[in-house]
Amino acid sequence: MTEFTPRIFSGIKPSGGVTLGNYLGAIKRWVDMQGPDFQTIYCAVDLHAITVWQDPAALRNGTREIAAALIASGIDPERSILFNQSQVSAHAELAWIFNCVARVGWMNRMTQFKEKAGKNAEAVSLGLYAYPALMAADILAYHATHVPVGEDQKQHVELTRDIAAKFNNDYKVDFFPLTEPVIEGPATRVMNLRDGTKKMSKSGESDMERINMTDDADTIAKKFRKARTDPAPLPDTLDELKDRPEARNLVDIYAGLSDSTPQAVLSDYAGAGWGKFKPALADLAVAKLSPISTEMSRLMSDPSEIDRVLARGAERAKALAEPILARTYGIVGLVG
Ligand code: TYM
User: Fold this and answer.
1) 202 is known as an active-site residue
2) Whole-structure pTM over 0.85, yes or no?
3) Is the CB–ligand 1 distance for residue 13 below 6 Å?
4) What's the Cα-to-Cα distance from 3 to each of 38, 71, 293, rounded to whole Å?
5) How far apart are CA 49 and CA 71, in angstroms?
6) 44: β partners
7) Does residue 242 carry a catalytic annotation?
């Protein structure tokens, strides 16, 4: 197998704001991965967003807000390549090739599609169904070797490996890397604050179930105060949290925000009741998130500067993706 240069790609949908789940499961880790070991490429995936209806003005605003959130969280547009997907047409072009490599049976197994489509599978867009092939194209257009994501994206990254392997095998080449999902840290699956068995998501029906990166200090404190828990105090060991999903979630969030581990959090708070732990968690969250949301608002006051950053990132992204796309076309036998 060819040695590929270590390269990180990851993306986030610009639909409906940024949650604490996005921050702890993805963005914070993307920030930490910037450095000499990897080239880092981060993308606001606007073409993915439109697989479900998006109001055009809200989409434009959402894309800039994602860029602002990433920069405010510590993504440096000089050290990393930061752009929005639709400005680099190689993504959509490679996705078409992968639509012809991926099998319908593979798509039928995607749990996220099944969850999103629900009983409505006949009426959702064809794009929602083909979404994982576009995601594979996002990653493989850069020959990315590592993809930091939350737990919910694992299956899609595994499908990306299947697509790469089938392409390499069909065309008898060693061209696309078998990308590794990187799912690490204490908060790879941040749960809903009102129901610890469901993922925290931007589309959940009540705003009380999630923390948004734009929430002010009072709102954050109120949401943690009202978060569902059980009556028992915090135990000594993680094992004792096995059947207490809401308690486990708050401990994981604390660990994620404090760069600690869930076990270390329990060591500090064993025996404490929620009257003590929830205010401490709220204070920690406000201390970490408020500077980010303040910086986000400052950046959002100058959208043209954000657009310049994204355009510059797109040029750098194109310089990497276009030669890979051209070689792919050559392998496939497309004349040009
Ligand atoms: P999206 O926009 O739903 O989420 C962006 C990132 O945030 C993570 N995440 C979470 N992590 C922990 N707990 C949660 N509750 C939580 N909610 C979201 C997601 O796992 C993800 O890492 N299909 C992707 C976007 C995408 C992409 C890609 C990712 C498109 N192309 C290529 C990686 C590589 C998505 O919808 O993420």
Assistant:
1) yes
2) yes
3) yes
4) 14, 31, 40
5) 20
6) 12, 84
7) no
- Record the tokens describing residue 109, joined without a space: 């197994």
Q: State if residue 160 touches ligand 1 by the CB under 6 angstroms criterion.
A: no
**What is the distance between the alpha carbons of residues 47 and 298, in angstroms, rounded to a whole number?**
26
Using the mean position of ligand 1's atoms as its centre, give its distance from the Cα of residue 187 in Å. 13
Q: Which two tokens stand for residue 187?
A: 């908060």
Q: Is the CB of 44 under 6 A from ligand 1?
A: no
List pLDDT tens digits, range 191-216: 999 999 999 999 888 999 999 999 99
Q: What is the pLDDT of residues 85-139, one digit of tens each?
A: 999 999 999 999 999 999 999 999 999 999 988 888 899 999 999 999 999 999 9
* Contact between residue 249 and residue 196 where contact means Cβ atoms under 8 Å apart: yes
Q: Which of 138, 149, 252 to mutate to test the pocket of ligand 1 (most atoms within 8 A of CB)?
A: 149
Q: Which residues contact 24 (CB under 8 A, 6 or more apart)?
A: 185, 187, 190, 253, 256, 257
> Which of the residues 166, 202, 222, 318 is marked catalytic?
202
**Active-site choice (199, 223, 278, 288):** 199
